[in-house]
Structure formats: structure tokens, C-alpha cells
Amino acid sequence: MLDLKSNFSCDEKFDFNNEVQLEFWPEVGPARKSGPSGESDLYESANTNKSEETNSFKEPIKLPESLKSLDCQALLKQIRLAAKTEQSLTLQVIELIAEIDRRKLYLDLGFGSIFEFVTKDLGYEPTSAMRRIQAARAISEMPELKAKIADRSLSLSVVSQAQSFLRKKANDQGKKISTEEKTELYKILENKSAREAEKELFKIAPELCLKSKEQEKILSENLTELRFVIDAETKAKTDELRLWLSHQNPDMAQAQFYKIMVEKLHRQLDPNKPAKPQFDFSPSITDAETDAAKKRSRHIPTAIKNLVWRRDLGCCRFVDAKSKKKCESKYQVQLDHIHPFRHMGEHRAENLRLYCGKHNRARD
């Protein structure tokens, strides 16, 4: 049992008759057979050496019947006492999560990850769960951090930021971060707020911080807001892809583009569905396709389309006769017959070119 008298730092005398005496370690009780027959009861005990204890928390705090009856000093002392209780419990939860993570106990309970266990079984909301998991992994690697979390020189938010930073740095370098580097980092972050810690980490590795600037915010049951940072090359390719897809949606938003790309990739990788053929850029044209191109059909063989696409670099090939200004737009690019199809123009690469939608319509 944790006697909060010993931890109460106020110099003034205080009547502890109504104090909180809290069970520091929860009493985990005898086996509760909640699983299917034949399965081991994972709720028997969080520690196999304490199976004789009872599975219940005692009432964590006993407040007076009416808070209104407290004078100001007594009210302040009660809130400080409750805060100390909460901090002690938080550290206890972190240590328990660390041990459950070490044993991979969540796998036996049917959860795919410790995060899923903490959110679904323990009921923490995602952000709070992640902070506790990050802190649990931090104290597993560096037990000395427990004291710093306990005395609040390192907050859970700061520890979570540091852990994410160290993981990104390890991935970026392709090697593990040494204990000395971790210790030095946590020294820098001591007694810093989350915002101050963010600034310190940015000073150490600006590019790394930008890479790790990812956020996921659940707005409703069906909507989630995503935020992440991409480099210039990825942004340029994204813009180009959106132009190539402009026939489907001329004013495609980022969210629509993201959905289309995910659906296309999902169809390709889904093991339950036959994968659709990939877009073939091969310039080879079979005899059968050549014969089909000669028929009076508006269907242009795929190999010829690909050949023209590659030759014209996916751009509108319109050139102004006087100024020699090239269009080169990639927006709503279409195949255009130089000698019109309605005037017996053939589906040959030599008779085809890429025009943007506006130039193609203007030609008609």
C-alpha cells in the first residue's frame, strides 16, 4: 500500500483522517475462466507469483460528501493529493504495459498489437495509449527513466516525442542508436514542455523531424484526417499523376487522389481478387494488334497507345505555327488522329499524337 503521507510535500499541517490510502499495485485475483474451453486463462494473474491476490481495485479516493464544504486550503490540498495519486497510477500502468509488451501477452489475447490491446481492452483513446506505450518501451530500454517520469522532469508527451525521434533516426541511419546517444538526448529534453522539446529535436535534425511529422486524427466513425510531409520529388510525381487522372475528375482533391491510388494498389495486391494487368509501356506491337488497328474500329490497340504515350512523353504535342510555342500540358491528355479517323485516318503511331482536351476540341 502506498502511504501518501510520506509523499505529501506541503509544509503545512494537514488532517490526514480523510486521506487517500491507495493500493499501489492492483490486486489481481484468482482465475476467471472467460475464454473458450481448453485455453489458458490469461487473466489469472499479471504476475504468476501473485495468483492468490484478489482481482479488484479498492476505491481510489474518498472525497468529502460535499466539495462545497471544503475551505480553499483544504480543496487545494485534496487536488494536489489526487494529482499525486494519479501520477503514481500512471507510472504503474506504464510498467505493466512494458511487461505485457515484453511477454507479447496481447497476442495470446487475440490482439494484433500492444496498441490494439491498450485501446480496445484497456479503453485508452489512441493518443493517450501511444504516449503510454512509448514510455513503456523507453523504461524497458532505460530503467533510469522511471525516476524522471515519476518526478515529472520528463512528461509522457516528451518521452513519446523522443522515442519517435530515435526510431526515425535509427531507420534513417540504418543502425541502432547507442545508449549513450539516448541518454544525452533525454538530458537535453529534461524539464522541457512538449513544444520546447519539439524545438530541441528540430535543432538536432530538422529533416528528420519533418519526415516524422505525421498525424492521424479521427473526425468521425467514417472520416479520419491525415497529415504528413512529402519531399519535392514525391510532390512532383503526385501532381503528374493527378494530371494523368484528370479525365476521371478534372478538379481532383488530394483526398480523392489518395483514395484512387489506394484502391488501385489494393486491387493489385488483394490476394482474394485476381490482379488486373499492369499498364504496359512496352513498345512491341503484335501482328494481331496491327491487323486490328487496320480495321475500321475506333478501338486503338493498347500497344499502339503505349507507344504514342512514351514517344510524346505524356504531353500535349500542339505547337503554334507562328510562335513555335509548345503546349506540353499534361491535363486531360487525349489521343488525336493527325489524319482524322472519320476521313479514313488509321490507328498507326505515325498518325497519332497526344493533345490536351482543349486543343483537341479546338481542332474540331
In short:
This protein has 364 residues and is mostly helical. The chain contains 14 helices and six strands. Strands 1-2 form a two-stranded antiparallel ribbon.
Describe how the helices and strands are arranged.
Layout (H helix, E strand, L loop, with lengths): L1 E2 L17 E2 L49 H32 L1 H4 L5 H8 L4 H16 L3 H6 L5 H18 L5 H11 L4 H11 L1 H6 L3 E4 L5 E4 L4 H13 L9 H16 L17 H8 L7 H10 L21 E5 L14 E5 H7 L1
Antiparallel strand pairs: 1-2, 3-4, 5-6
Structure description:
The protein is mainly alpha-helical. It contains 14 helices and six strands. The protein has helices at 72-103, 105-108, 114-121, 126-141, 145-150, 156-173, 179-189, 194-204, 206-211, 232-244, 254-269, 287-294, 302-311, 357-363, and strands at 2-3, 21-22, 215-218, 224-227, 333-337, 352-356. It has a two-stranded antiparallel sheet. The chain has a two-stranded antiparallel sheet with strand order 3-4. Strand 3 (215-218) and strand 4 form a beta hairpin. It starts with a strand and ends with a helix.
Give the number of DSSP strands: 6
Biggest sheet architecture = 2 strands, antiparallel
User: How would you describe the shape?
Assistant: elongated
Total number of helical segments?
Answer: 14
Distance between the termini: 88 Å
Strand content: 5-15%
Keywords:
mainly alpha; two-stranded antiparallel sheet; 46% helix; 364 residues
